[in-house]
């Protein structure tokens, strides 16, 4: 059983650092045993250097997958994530760059196929957020950037990945509980996450006949570097008690998200497509 996180006031700057989080996040729980659920698969995970993405990378590796990790600029975190994947006996390829660039997204797919020999699972996980409590003061550039990073990148990557995917392969998009609850200080972020839910449903309908499944994960509050780098940067005290308003009374750990992605990527989820899974601490969102 995971105990309640005691998170003190703190802040970071974007894109955030796993190494400086207080307390450190848990990536994989003690005793998690792989069962070759992804044996021989190749996965590309955006934002795989830290937080939920790093946990997904480690879990995928323990289940037998080789992993490509895309990250913006956090070289220390990315190098550490690679070390953790390789410690599971799997290959890991790092790709640094900005996912708002369509050409870079296409290169990510090409590099993964070239370096790791194919592609079976695309995890569109990278994202950013910024606090803005007044829509009239939200900069136009911030609105555009939010969609370019969070939403447009998923389109670019999925478009480039689909020619390489075949029956039994999958795409998993990271949405958010905020697509459903709509916090008033994250209007642009919540809008992108709502778009991701709809993108997931429509893309699933388009490709499920080919045996390719497309699903989403909509996490609730999870202890990742994005929180101190955005909520904490706006007001360090906002992180005190982070997640305590969930029915479970706590924030989640990345270790509790990794197995959700394993499930959706594996044949355990062979009859699931176009759906959104809600690991959010018990909040009912009816989505």
What topology does this entry show?
Elements: E1 42-46, H1 51-62, E2 66-71, H2 75-87, E3 92-96, H3 102-116, E4 121-124, H4 140-161, E5 170-174, H5 178-181, H6 187-207, E6 213-217, H7 226-234, H8 258-265, E7 276-277
Parallel strand pairs: 1-2, 1-4, 2-3, 4-5, 5-6, 6-7
Keywords: Oxidoreductase
InterPro entries: NAD(P)-bd_dom_sf (IPR036291), Sc_DH/Rdtase_CS (IPR020904), SDR_fam (IPR002347)
Family: Belongs to the short-chain dehydrogenases/reductases (SDR) family.
Poorly predicted residue ranges:
none
Distance between the termini: 27 Å
Number of helices: 8
Strand residues, percent? 5-15%
* CATH architecture group name: 3-Layer(aba) Sandwich
Radius of gyration: 17 Å
Biased composition (Polar residues): 1-15
Region (Disordered): 1-23
Pfam families: adh_short_C2 (PF13561)
Family: Belongs to the short-chain dehydrogenases/reductases (SDR) family.
Question: Can you describe what's shown?
Answer:
By secondary structure, this protein is an alpha/beta fold. It has a single domain, classed as Rossmann fold (3-Layer(aba) Sandwich). It contains 8 helices and 7 strands; from the N terminus they run βαβαβαβαβααβααβ. Strand 1 (42-46), helix 1 (51-62) and strand 2 form a beta-alpha-beta unit. This is SDR family oxidoreductase. It holds the Pfam family adh_short_C2. Belongs to the short-chain dehydrogenases/reductases (SDR) family.
């Amino acid at each position: 059983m995971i105990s309640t996180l005691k998170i003190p006031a703190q802040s970071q700057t974007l894109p955030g650092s796993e190494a400086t989080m207080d307390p450190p996040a848990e990536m994989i729980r003690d005793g998690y045993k792989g069962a070759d659920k992804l044996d021989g698969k190749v996965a590309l995970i955006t934002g795989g250097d830290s937080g939920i993405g790093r946990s997904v990378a480690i879990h995928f590796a323990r289940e037998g997958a080789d992993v490509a990790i895309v990250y913006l600029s956090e070289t220390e975190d990315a190098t550490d994530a690679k070390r953790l994947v390789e410690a599971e006996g799997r290959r890991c390829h790092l790709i640094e760059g900005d996912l708002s660039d369509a050409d870079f997204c296409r290169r990510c797919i090409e590099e993964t196929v070239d370096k790791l020999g194919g592609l079976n699972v695309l995890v569109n996980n990278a994202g950013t957020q910024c606090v803005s409590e007044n829509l009239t003061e939200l900069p136009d550039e911030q609105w555009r950037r939010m969609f370019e990073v969070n939403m447009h990148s998923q389109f670019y990557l999925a478009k480039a990945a689909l020619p390489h995917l075949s029956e039994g392969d999958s795409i998993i998009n990271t949405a958010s509980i905020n697509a459903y609850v709509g916090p008033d200080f994250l209007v642009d972020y919540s809008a992108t996450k709502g778009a991701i839910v709809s993108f997931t449903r429509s893309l699933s309908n388009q490709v499920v006949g080919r045996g390719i499944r497309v699903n989403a994960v909509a996490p609730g509050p999870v202890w990742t570097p994005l929180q101190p780098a955005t909520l904490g940067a706006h007001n360090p005290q906002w992180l005190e008690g982070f997640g305590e308003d969930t029915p479970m009374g706590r924030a989640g750990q990345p270790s509790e998200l990794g197995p959700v992605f394993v499930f959706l990527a594996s044949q355990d989820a062979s009859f699931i497509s176009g759906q959104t899974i809600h690991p959010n601490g018990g909040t009912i969102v009816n989505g």
